[in-house]
Design goal:
Elements (H helix, E strand, L loop, with lengths): L6 E3 L11 H7 L4 E4 L17 H16 L3 E6 L3 H4 L18 H9 L16 H16 L4 E4 L20
Parallel strand pairs: 1-2, 2-3, 3-4
Length: about 170
């Protein structure tokens, strides 16, 4: 049996760790590669902020390399992770025992020395300003060559329906 779409997603990798994968994935017959929302803080914890130039450069390089190999590059964005899962104590799933309770803070400090771990506010469902921020972020990534996007709504609160909407999906 063959599949039209075979994919792979990196998790908790540094942006540069993604660069060598398109060649291997193409050789193995993969057609889809997802940048996890942990790719950079600006795709998760700091989703309201623009990507830093170095991360933009990685996305552009990956998009070009994937396109040349017939691989669809997908960027995942999680505008909710800062609400619940950004600390070991608040994580929905427990951290792997080898990571230790302070792993998340150490990882943040390694990526952003001297910057406090302060996630952006989560997506406000039905909010036009939040939709504009998210849409602009995805439009920029599309300009860099990304053609697929995953809006990851991990840790979603099913009861977060704004009063003016009939459902969370409508919001």
């Amino acid at each position: 049996m063959t599949y039209a779409l075979r994919g792979f997603k990196g998790l908790w990798w540094e942006p540069g760790q993604y660069l060598g994968w398109p060649g291997l994935l193409a050789e193995a017959g993969y057609t889809f590669f997802m940048l996890c929302y942990t790719f950079a803080p600006e795709s998760g914890l700091r989703w309201r902020q623009p990507f830093r130039r170095a991360d933009e450069s990685h996305i552009r390089r990956l998009a070009a390399d994937c396109a040349a190999r017939g691989i669809e590059l997908c960027l995942a964005v999680n505008p909710n992770i800062g609400a619940h899962a950004w600390t070991p104590d608040g994580a929905t799933l427990p951290f792997h025992p080898t990571a230790g309770r302070d792993w998340f803070r150490r990882d943040w400090q390694a990526r952003r020395p001297g910057q406090a771990l302060e996630p952006d506010l989560p997506l406000r469902y039905g909010d036009k300003d939040d939709l504009a921020i998210l849409t602009d972020k995805l439009r920029r990534a599309a300009d860099w060559g990304v053609r697929s996007f995953a809006l990851s709504l991990d840790d979603i609160d099913p009861g977060a329906v704004p009063a003016e909407f009939s459902s969370l999906a409508a919001a």
